[in-house]
Amino acid sequence: MMHRLGLAARTAALTGREAGSEEAVVHGVAAVCDPLGALYLPDAGALVVSDLHLEKGAAFARRGMMLPPYDTIATLNILAAVIARYDPRTVISLGDNFHDRKGSAHLPDDLRALVGAMGRGRDWIWINGNHDPDGTTDLPGTSVDELLYGGLVFRHEPSLTFGKGEVAGHLHPSATVRRREKYVRRPCFATDGLRLLMPAFGVLAGGLDLNHKAMHGLFDRQALVAHLLGRDRIYSVRYANLLG
Question: Which stretches are annotated as coiled coil (predicted)?
């Protein structure tokens, strides 16, 4: 959490490679993988994030498990930084926007105002996820199950049947590399050029390794590249060079 907040503060006025980003192409559409965990589509003027899991700490508290109650404000501050960087016309949030069905309705007023300020003057699309299938309450934008936009299809869970041009979340992809005699596991964007899986944006969200059985059948592994979220920039590593 702290290093992402620090990175957001250090790179707030930077764009492109100066901000540590890397370019990718998804089904012919140019994209920018940002080290804060967002995807920017310059031709469409769209910023994509996934799996915010807002109010996760509050959801756990309702079940009697106490977590520090700072996850939502931290996630929203990072989101505000990346929105300020790209000033997108459209924000697309790919589901599991809140950690449970109650999170949106129970969002504190000050945090609701922060989301409202970020959404002012732009379109905001909330894709419904498995954690929050009912959409959002009193927040800017529109809730949908799936979106066709800018030559791509945006959904929460990746499809084994219709994957070309898909940008999805849900699986929280991560990958492991060896660096300076240490094993480092990081969240990542994962793409083989036909579809892209987004890393989880929420600061309390975990990750699922690209070798996990849930990833099987989603990618052409010979073409698969993991764009890892490093502490200072994106590190792009071909699947063959990852550690299983």
Answer: none
- Residue 235 makes CB contacts below 8 A (sequence gap 6+) with 177, 186, 227, 228
Greatest C-alpha distance within the chain: 49
Tokens of 203: 């600061």
Contact 160/100 with Cβ under 8 angstroms?
Answer: no
Residue pair 151/42 in contact (Cβ under 8 Å)? The answer is no
Q: How far is CA 215 from CA 51, 87, 220, in A?
A: 17, 32, 11
Question: pLDDT tens digit string along 28-73?
Answer: 999 999 999 999 999 999 999 999 999 886 665 566 666 666 899 9
Give the strand pairing for 208-209 and 196-197. unpaired
Do 97 and 126 contact (CB within 8 A), yes or no? Answer: yes
Name the pTM for this structure: 0.94
DSSP the chain: -HHHHHHHHHTTT--GGGGT-EEEEETTEEEEE-TTS-EEETTTTEEEE----BTHHHHHHHTT----TTHHHHHHHHHHHHHHHH--SEEEE-S--BSSTTTTTT--HHHHHHHHHHHTTSEEEEE--SS-TT--SS-SSEEESEEEETTEEEESSPPSS--TTEEE-SS-EEEEEEETTEEEEEEEEEE-SS-EEPPP-STT---EETTSGGGTTSS-TTT-EEEEE-SSSEEEEEGGGSB-
